[in-house]
Amino acid sequence: MSSLLLLFFPLLLFSLVSAASAFLAPTSFVNVHNRAFSSHAFEAADSRLCSAATQTLIVGKIILDKYGPPDRQTDDDGVTIGGGGPQSAWGAAASLVVRDYLSRNERKKINNDDERDFLLSNPKHQITFLAPVGTKNWTPSMTEQLSQLLPPMVNVVLVPSADHITPTINIWHDEHENVRWMPVNGSFDDIGADGLWQNRPSAQDILSAIQDTDDDDIILHAIIESGSKPTGKGLDALPFFDDKLMSKVSTAGVEPIVFADEVSGKVTEEDSQAVTTTIRKILQSFVRARACDKEKDGNSLFVVTPDRPCYEGMISHTNLTMDESENTENNEFEMIIRDGGNGCFTNEMKMPAATLRTIDKAPVNPTGAGNAFSAAYVVCRGTGSSMNEAASIATAVGAVVCEYEHLPMWSLEVVERIAEAACEVI
To answer: Can you give the pTM of this predicted structure?
Structure first.
């Protein structure tokens, strides 16, 4: 009899505890934060980095999107502002607000409109978004539309060219849900992106955007066209080679854009070598500019955020590694790989993707999610977040962008949703 009691008592106890727990009140979202992050997971700064940066510059591209395949388009169909740049600026702003939200004392709830408005328009960190536009087809209403897309703390600086058009594409998903796109009316020829994106914005444009501050701990993140034959002839990377500008930058981020073969899914050896060369040259320029200014005794960080095909091409065809030899005591190189639905990873950690809150758990529109992720990660790292913290917030930002047809309207509900996703993956 005693042996039977010993056998069944643990099962009986487990059943009683399970039954009792069914009558407990469900854990609130705020309590989930308290339980999961009692170890201050969202308050951990990386002491190796200069976390005093108060201004971020996001340099990106603007493309006018016409949704739907070309054979279904009409002249009356409207356009949506995309191209990766707006998504990057949105992601940068969202990441900082979400981090503040998660770090609130005792995870206090937002109790009134003033607290909500302060959180959503947080002025502690300035974000400036710079992008070139061709005024042959860019209109004042588009400028207004762009401003409405972005959080209120983002200052938009457009670099106009009267000689070019802002590139326009048809964009759609095929029967396998792969993103397809096609340029409209020479949008990627000399009159469009290939001419417009050459050294716009320039280093002087970027310096002019920060002329009202004496801050020498700027975060600069840019989408860079890469590969052996990049759009814009690769001249969008020129600002990274300006010593005056780079001496003011404490954290530099580069998101290299190169396209994999549609059949093999791989980046060619030629493109991989070109991407690696560009990254190395930018890193060397950054280290040199910081070293030349004797007053810059603080640490600096260089972050590269390739997608997985780009990364695999680089490690297959070149000797680039996640830890470049240019690392010194005060200059660090970091690479984080965007892996879509699998999350992201570095040589030190792997972060899973957040579960999407869509009906079928699939993305509504993944376009721009990687851009938002990259900027979010770089900005969090540049302002003191650990790698895990930055990756969890950036992963959450990218996931929530996927849940919407276009960029989410800026609201407390969206901030809370990103915070929830960050709590899930960390």
So the answer is: 0.86
